[in-house]
Amino acid sequence: MSELGASCPLPASSERVLLAHGGGGRLSQQLFEELFLPALRSPELEARHDGALLSAGGARLAFSTDAYVVDPLIFPGGDIGSLAVHGTVNDLAMCGARPRWLSAAFVLEEGLPLSTLRRVVASMGAAAAAAGVALVTGDTKVVDRGRGHGLYLTTSGVGVVEHGAAIGPQTVRAGDAILLSGDLGRHGIAIMATREGLEFETTIESDSAPVHAPVLALLEAGLEVHCLRDLTRGGLASALVEVAQAAGLGCALDGAQIPVEEDVQGACELLGLDPLQVANEGRFVCFLPAAQAERALEVLRKHPVSAGATAIGVVSSARPGLVELDTGFGSSRLLDMLSGEQLPRIC
Amino acid sequence: MSELGASCPLPASSERVLLAHGGGGRLSQQLFEELFLPALRSPELEARHDGALLSAGGARLAFSTDAYVVDPLIFPGGDIGSLAVHGTVNDLAMCGARPRWLSAAFVLEEGLPLSTLRRVVASMGAAAAAAGVALVTGDTKVVDRGRGHGLYLTTSGVGVVEHGAAIGPQTVRAGDAILLSGDLGRHGIAIMATREGLEFETTIESDSAPVHAPVLALLEAGLEVHCLRDLTRGGLASALVEVAQAAGLGCALDGAQIPVEEDVQGACELLGLDPLQVANEGRFVCFLPAAQAERALEVLRKHPVSAGATAIGVVSSARPGLVELDTGFGSSRLLDMLSGEQLPRIC
Description:
Strand content of chain A: 25-35%
Number of strands of chain A: 14
Order of helices and strands of chain A: HHEEEEHEHEEEHHEHEHEHEEE
Oligomer: homodimer
């Protein structure tokens, strides 16, 4: 804070990018709403979805992009290459699309061992093959030593929307069930533990994985999926607050139904983190009519990546824009979007 | 070089990324052929085009991506934002597609003034509007201070192919005319002059511009466009050598027909650069039957961005894979792909 004091806002010209602008929480949202959206306005950006829905010559497409700057490049359960494939595949899945084609753009730092690049690219290839998507176009740039951090990677993806459903917060209704596809917090804790050299009794592995198969199975089963959201930066809490705000409805969650593994819970306590705000890379929530919840859980549990799916709460019109967690024993708390930067460079 | 000497190749594990791997010349090609392609193989990557051609539900699409790491972020005639829009629009145009939708992924360095980001994003918005494309999806990550260089930007694009032509080196035939859309070298020299603080009598401005309008006009006029290539990293020489190698044919160029502005020529001489290897961002070559060259030039010259179009040579089967330049007075030289790194971080 300058000596002018808190009552005098700093002039705009001295504002600078903070790590928290990339954290997926409140400052990320503010940057999007106040800087990107006004300059780049389009109906698709205004939908504030994980990807854009497009109509091209009779085909309905989804289009999405994500930059990856994870540190370290290689971590238990994955690396920046597989993560970048899973992340974009999952963004397309959250649009209800079948992921088909990916692009990859590398920003390499001069001096990066080619063996590291080879490993990351091999991992990308394997992840793409496993997810049934093709890497069809790419680009490589090199920046001078000290101007990068090994490599940054941006993947974009195109998928085909094969159904007529309108998936998004605007379709969420009071009475919808909220399903969670599995346990929380493993990606964030795996990264944090590697970076900080923390040792736990067992190695916590990232949950990084493609989730399009169970999502497409829900749609193919004819279930009325209202909204899907993957739980990356900012975790479950940020995703649900975003949906609640966009839908103008509230979410009431039962904490006892939200799975967090014991070692992840322990690591979170040690590090002072809320597992509901920690990033995942293979987890999503699904909103659909409560009457279909049981059938949807059956479908999800048939897929290994969502075998641990649970119903964690319901949508209500009682407290619009708020997410309330019943923590047991009659107490409850409001969940908030991540504010500040909890775990920089998590993805 | 290690003390083992030149006769003993270094083990693979000590190989590292060099600036020249991002230069668009020989080392870039080697990285693609030896590292990326084997791990990520797909028919689209094997086509070695500026973008991928896809079929989705009856629609023919083009999909392309480029990372931008240009230094400085703002230069005479443009900035990283407009450059990223033009670059991806042009890659789609080189596939014969009408550019429609763009994504943008930002890697911001902590501490970047928000005023710089605002300027770049405003410039992206204006460039997209001018090119008739919509920015429909995006992402922002932030890296710690000293791990970036202000900002890196990756744009991907999707376009619609509205004609049936097969555009690519495989369609090039002996006897084809080679058309060049305008003068060479301004983008590279504008960047270099800014970076090195060079002063010329006039400010040399980048040629950065979208070129889809004249390309689509050629196709709409029913001209048989065989191949298109934009002249970015590595310049005219690298682009023509690539096409000649892929087509298994030779190119014979008339140097007198290749426009280079006097101040650009002077700067190249001062800096020891070959203007035919300097990057452009609003220039392309077009291969089509010689009998259609005059009509094609008429079409191109109606568009300001290609008002200076000329016929610079012909394709022949005489010297497969080689590009020969007639420099006048009976002398000639073979053009080579850029080797090493001439101008790092040009785009």
